[in-house]
Specification:
The complex is a heterodimer. By secondary structure, chain A is α/β, with parallel strands linked by helices. Chain A contains eleven helices and eleven strands. The longest helix of chain B is centred in the middle third of the chain and has 19 residues, at about 160-180. Classes of the chains: A alpha/beta, B alpha/beta.
Amino acid sequence: MKIAIASGKGGTGKTTVAVNLALSIPNSHLIDCDVEEPNCNLFLNKELEPIGSSKVTVPNIDEELCTYCGKCSQMCRFNAIATLPEKVILFPTLCHSCGGCILVCPEHAISGKEKCTGIVSRSADMEDHPRLYEGVLNIGESMASPVIKELKRWIEPNISTIIDSPPGTGCPVMTTLEDTDHCILVTEPTPFGLHDLSLAVEMVKIMNIPFGVIINRSEEGNSIIEEYCDKENIDVLMKIPLNKRIAELYSQGIPFVEEMPEWKERFSALFKNIVNGKELA
Amino acid sequence: MEREILSFIQEHSQWKGTGMKELVVISGKGGTGKTTITASFAAMAKNAVIADCDVDAPNLHLLLRPKIMETHAFYGMDKAKIDLERCNECYNCQNSCNFDAIDENLIVNQHKCEGCGVCEYVCESDAIKMVTKISGNVFRSATNHGTMVHAELGIGEEASGKLVSAVKERSRSIALENENDLIITDGPPGTGCPVLATITGAHLALIVTEPSLSGMHDLERVLQVTEHFEIPAIVCINKYDINENNSRTIEAFCHERNIEVVGKLPYDTSTNLAMMEETTIIEYSQNVLSEGIKALWERVVSELEKQ
């Protein structure tokens, strides 16, 4: 069972939900796919060890052979190569590693060069609960998806796996959500939260992933999200109240299920409901 | 290498020497208050173009209520299309695709296809065409506070970085045309493609953080990004009073790195009330927060003048 935690809007509580949910499920694995800003381990403090890296192939030009014909620049649809009369400028961060430039070069002046764009690590202690896997995109690199793909290779079948997604609805999010069994969309009861939730809902519908909503920082008398979910026939799986104790624990980096065991039961029940729903379907 | 790119872009930019400045508001972590602050700046700026570069989850329009004046179709990356009638099943396309986007039945997976055109190039029977596709829109809109450029990306479309660049290009040409002296840009969270597209060519980045462990961690990473690309950065601590200890740690950290903390804003529930009224906090009320944002704006303007 692979459950992704996503949101549309940033800062709504994805990581909070992912960490607390993973802590409430026995033998779970937690995969932090927010490789631009991975935060799960701020709440778990696991000792991590590197286990892999995302490598992409970027062009390497032999200027001795190059005749500045410009075919590589014409081929490259990502504007990663500019050919000037006597110089070729590479923009490796724009390169998508398609290999087109290598194919078209009539002088065979271009070869592929491996470049590391990010690192994948996991709990050094294999008995950790949850066992944490984390990817980090190197500073200055633009493409998060190759790191996420490398990280997702470590997902084991038959293990309850919680996946923390990046915010938004772009490529990194879709790469994270691909092949997951269920998605939990975390939102907050504000107009921004509602707007971005509706974008995320459209995305998971297109990807055909079953989903439900968790309302974080929920307040009495504010039903902006419930009204939307009601109208759209979307399950509200849980409401986490705007609560001083929860906020304090968050700012200290303590997952609140550790101090408030009644929440561990709620998260555990939530997980069982999703699993049962899956079996019924 | 990145510096070379940056100087290349700055050398070739059309507005070089016009005196126009570009301010970007970014954060690393999402939900720290970028949009609330950007909208307030828009309400105070005298002669600015306002741009929303958070194209994945745009919110600025919810506070500035833009009236759309022009809509421009945005073309994302082309996608491969295979004409199976012409195909001789050589499978060169499948073998050459580095994105596993072509399956054994020679069907192109639209999400996996990155539009590189390698399949079209290697096809023996000229059966593959790269097809253009509208993947979103860029809008030029009127607001009470000046021209706004914003965008929408079609659901499931993936060219966020390219769309950010399209929003920036349009903002710059409008600013040139209208002789605006500033572009104020609301940026996306993170450190990847859309953020790099947003900060390229900016004169100053205002990083909005909050005194939580995540806020602090993400501030550190996004500062590494601005340093890497040599974009001058200043910091604002939003909701500084939710954990004053952490706020002091952020100040010490910034001091050590020679980064100016130009504002500390209190936690205030009036931001949500202003949001419900679809207006900026500056127009909504006169309180400690709106006064704090005004003082922050003064500081940002004087930092911009130095750039």
